[in-house]
Design a protein that fits this description.
alpha+beta; 6 helices
Length: 222
């Protein structure tokens, strides 16, 4: 055997990769913990609301309520554009313009009672929100607009948060960040569990088993 293999330089050379590995695992463990802690509140929210959505029929859980009411809004002059209509409604109900969206349905052919008709142009203004939201439908040229206002109770508002029905950009970004955090926690948790040198066959079996189970359950509901 070569004597150089017992030299301190050779031993030190072999210890460098293991030391780097331990340092990497320590940093990964800290990052895993901090990411998990920062997303704990969102995990609780999505978990509880997901339970309500999954079992509301079997357990007869209160599904939440949405109160609806119709309001007719009158203008001194007909709005000149969808944007003008949205600004006027936002000012009337003191809603930030960031929560207001609009779309235009152009004139198109249709049928009423089997007879061909021309469907008039229509403007729709939507007020985004999880607890309070509304939709206004307007025919260009009129001085009035019909507004459907909806107010959700706490349970219904939480369910809308879970499904992202509010459409608000800030909440969508938060939900995307939480989804990315879940992906990171899954990967880093698997890596920490195996410690990069653990029973890789068992780890692969558990991961493959979870994937197969998810595919089977999802396939039955497809």
């Amino acid at each position: 055997m070569d004597a150089s293999s017992h030299s301190p330089h050779a031993a030190g050379f072999r210890r460098v990769p293991r030391a780097k590995q331990r340092a990497f695992l320590r940093r990964l463990r800290k990052l895993h913990a901090w990411v998990g802690l920062s997303g704990a509140a969102f995990g609780l929210l999505f978990g509880l609301t997901g339970f309500l959505l999954n079992h509301r029929g079997v357990l007869k859980i209160e599904a939440g309520q949405i109160q609806e009411r119709r309001v007719t809004v009158a203008f001194a002059e007909a709005p000149a554009s969808p944007e003008a209509l949205a600004r006027a409604l936002a000012a009337r109900f003191d809603v930030p313009t960031s929560r207001v969206k609009w779309l235009v349905k152009t004139p198109r052919p249709g049928r009423v009672g089997g007879a061909p008709v021309q469907v008039a142009e229509q403007w729709t203004v939507v007020f985004l929100g999880h607890a309070h939201f509304a939709t206004a439908t307007y025919a260009p040229g009129n001085r009035t607009v019909e507004l459907e206002q909806r107010d959700a109770n706490l349970i219904q508002a939480l369910k809308r948060l879970h499904k992202g029905d509010g459409g608000q950009v800030a909440w969508i970004l938060v939900s995307d960040a939480f989804a990315g955090a879940l992906v990171f926690l899954s990967l880093s948790g698997t890596l920490l569990w195996t410690r990069l040198s653990g029973p890789k066959l068992l780890a692969a079996g558990l991961a493959a088993g979870g994937l197969v189970l998810a595919l089977l359950v999802g396939g039955r509901a497809w």
